[in-house]
Amino acid sequence: MRTTFSAARLLVGVALAAFFAVGSTAPPSAFAQNIYSIYSAFNGPDAPIPDGQTAEDVENYVGPSDFLLDKAGTFFYVAEGDAGRLRRVRADGTAAAESIPLPFKPNKMRFFPGETKLAIVGGGYKGRLAIVEIAQAPENADADGADAQTAPPPLPLRVVADYPIGHTPSDVSVKRTDDGRELVYATLQFENAALEIDAATGKVERRWDVGREPFCAELTPDGRRYVVAGRITDKRANVSYSCSAVRVVDLDANEVKKTDLLNGHNLLTDMTLSPDGKYAFISAVQGNYLSVTSQVSGGWIAENVFLVVDVETCEFVEVFFLDDEQLGAGNPWGIACSEDGKRLVVSLAGTDEIVFIPLERVMKTLADRPEWARPGFGAYMYSSFATGEVQLPIRLRVKFGLKGLRQTIVRGDDVYVLSYFEDAICKATLKLTPPFEYYPNSYVSLETPPRLLQTDANANPTAAETSENADSTDDRPDDSAAEAAAFAKLAAETASNPNAGPPLRFVELEPRRPLKGVEIARSFARLGPKPVLTTRRRGEILYHDATACFEHWQSCVTCHPDARVDGFNWDLLNDGTGNLKNSKSMLLSHETPPSMISGIRADAETAVRAGFTHILFKNADEENACAVDEYLSSLRPVPSPYLVDGELSESAKRGKVLFESDRTGCAICHPAPHYTDLRLHRVGSQDVNDFIDAFDSPTLIEVWRTAPYMNTGEYLTVRELLLEGKHGARDGRLDKLTPQEQDDLIEYVLSL
Questions:
Q1: 597, 687 in Cβ contact below 8 A?
Q2: Containing domain of residue 628, as a range?
Q3: Which entry of 143, 162, 205, 612 is 20 to 30 Å from 686 by CA?
Q4: Helix (H) or strand (E) holding 133
Q5: pLDDT tens digit sequence for 105-143
Q6: Are residues 574 and 622 in the same domain?
Q7: Last residue of some domain: 576, 608, 634?
Q8: Residue by residue, what is the 3-state secondary structure of 292-306?
Q9: Considering the chain, what is the average pLDDT of its residues?
Q10: Distance CA 508, CA 451 (A)
Q11: How is residue 611 annotated by DSSP?
C-alpha cells in the first residue's frame, strides 16, 4: 500500500526541511528537532525540584484523557487523567468550572441515556467503574431521557457508585434496555476482555475474550453489537503477515466475530461509528515492517490511516490514508463523525493537527466499490484536483501546534479536540463559501503553527514578538492579559474551594485559509494555567512527537507504544540487512545495558540518539535526547494481571522456588532485581539470516505484555517459549518438570 517513492519527492522533502531548518530565525530552544513550533514543548525553564524530591513530586498537570459535550452544547465534562478529577465547565465560558475528585485516575467516560449520569472507567491495574450523577432527569424526557435542545437541569457532581472491574479499563459504553435496566460495557486492556456490567449493582453479567489489548470500542446505536479494536498485533512476528484485529460482539447471540486487517495495521487507537451505525472508523498506523528501515520518506517505514469495518458482517472493508505524499500525518488518535453525516475528523497527535474529511465522499467511495475490489481500492485520496469545477481536497489539514491532540468531538461545523500535554481544549470551525479556488501549493503545505490573533492593543507581546524574539525562553502563546487577570481573580475568589476552576475562555488564533472559499477559525482554551514542563515531561512529549521526524511520518511511539512493544520484527540497519529482530520494550532500558536485541548499542543513551538519526532521520539535539532519557528512566512496571491482590498466587510462589533453583537454572541468566544478567547468550535462537548467534538477555519484568518472544518473535506465549522452544534449556531440564511444576514456573514468570 506504500506510495511510490521518487527522487523528485525526496528533493522536495529535503528542500522543505532545509527551508524550515535554515530559513527560520527562531531561537534554537523553540525547535522540535528543527521543525519550528511556537508551542514547542522544548522551551521554557524546568520546574524547580526541591532537594529530596523527584520530578513526579512537583508535576501538577491536568492531563485531560477524555471529554464530552452534552447534546445541548451547554457543558463540557472533562476527565482529568493526571489530576484524578472530573470537571464540568460551561462551553460559553460564562461561569467558573466545578470539579470533584474521583477515587481513581480516569481514562474514558460516556453519558448514560438522558445525560443525567456519567460512566467513568480508569484506575490502571486497579481498574474501576464510577457512576457520577450530573443532572436531574426532566419530567418531559423523550425516549433517550432528555430533550436534545436543552440540557437536563444540572445537579452537583456526585459519585453514586464505584465498582472494581479489572486490569486497566480502556473504554466504556452504556445502554438502557427495553425493561429499563442500565448496562455498562467496558474493555480491559491487559485482561484481553470485554465486560457487560449491571450499572445498579456492579455485577459482571457477561465477559468475552476480545483478543490482545482491546483499546477502543463502540456500542452500535441499536445496542445490539459491541465493536472492539485491539491495539497491537496478536500474531507471531516471524511471518510475512501480522496485524491487529477487530472483533464484533453480537450481544443478542452472545457470539464474537473477528476480522483481521491488512498486513502491518497496528496501533488502533480510537473508534467512531458512522451515523447510521453501519461502519466503524478506526484510527491506526500501517507499519511497513517488511521494509529495510533505510529511509522514512514517503511513508517507507510507517503510514497513517483510518480503517473501515462493516459492523454487521464484521468484515474489514477499506483503508484510507491520511498522509500527503511528502508530509506524513504522524500518529492519528481521535476520530469522530458529525451527526449530520457530512464530516469525519481525525486528530493527529504526533503532528499537532486535525484533518477534515468529507464523510459523504468516504461513504460514496464505499458504496461505489466494485464487487471484486479488496481493501485498498479507495485508499489513496489524492484525486482532488478535478478538471472543470474546483472541488475541495478530500483532506483539509489544520495545524494547531498544541501537543498531544487526542479525543475529538464534532458538532456541525465546530470541532473540539483535547490537548493532553497542554491541558487545553482546541476548537476549529470550518467555514465554506464556494466556489473554491486553489492558491499556489495550497493543497499540501508544511504549515507553521498559528500565531495569536491580536485584537487587543494591550494584550501580551505581539505574535511576531512571541515567535521571533531570540531572547524568548518560552514560545508557546500566553493567554491575553485579560485572561491572566481572570485566572488571578478566580484564584483569589476560590482559594478556599479546591474544586473550583477557571471559566473556559477561548483565545483566538490566526485562521487557516488553505484555498479560496475555505476558512478554518482556530482557538484554544486552557483548563488551567499553562503547565510548566519538567525535563521528564518534555521527554514524554518528544517521545510522542512526529514533528521530530523527517516529513512527520512517525514518532517513537509508532514502534514502541507506551514505550513498550508493537509486536513486529523490524529490519534495522545497525546489524546489517535481511535479519529482522523483534521490537523490545523500553522499560528499564537505561538500567539494563546493553541495548538492542543484538546488544549492539552500549547503553540506552546511545540507542536514543541513534534512534533519532536512523529511525526519525533527524539529528538529535542533545537537550532533547537527555529529556527522552529522563522520560524513559522514569517508567515504572505495570503490575501483572497474574498477581492476586498485588501478590504472587500460590502457584507463582511455588514457581518462584523453581525459578531460583538449580533444577531450572532460570535465575542464572535472569537474576533479580531486574531479572537479567546484562549479558549476551547463545540460546539456539539464531535465524538463518542472523550474523550473530548470541543475543541480549532481556529483563523479564512485564514479560506478560511483551509477546511475541525471542529475537525472532517466534513464540506467542511463555509456555510455547519454554516448552516448545526449550529456551536456555536444550538439555531437557524443563521436560523433567511435572505438568504442575511447569504451570507454576510459567505463572511466576508471567507475574513479574
A1: no
A2: 12-20+532-634
A3: 612
A4: strand 127-135
A5: 999 999 999 999 999 999 999 999 999 999 998 776 555
A6: yes
A7: 634
A8: ECCCCHHHCCEEEEE
A9: 85
A10: 9
A11: H
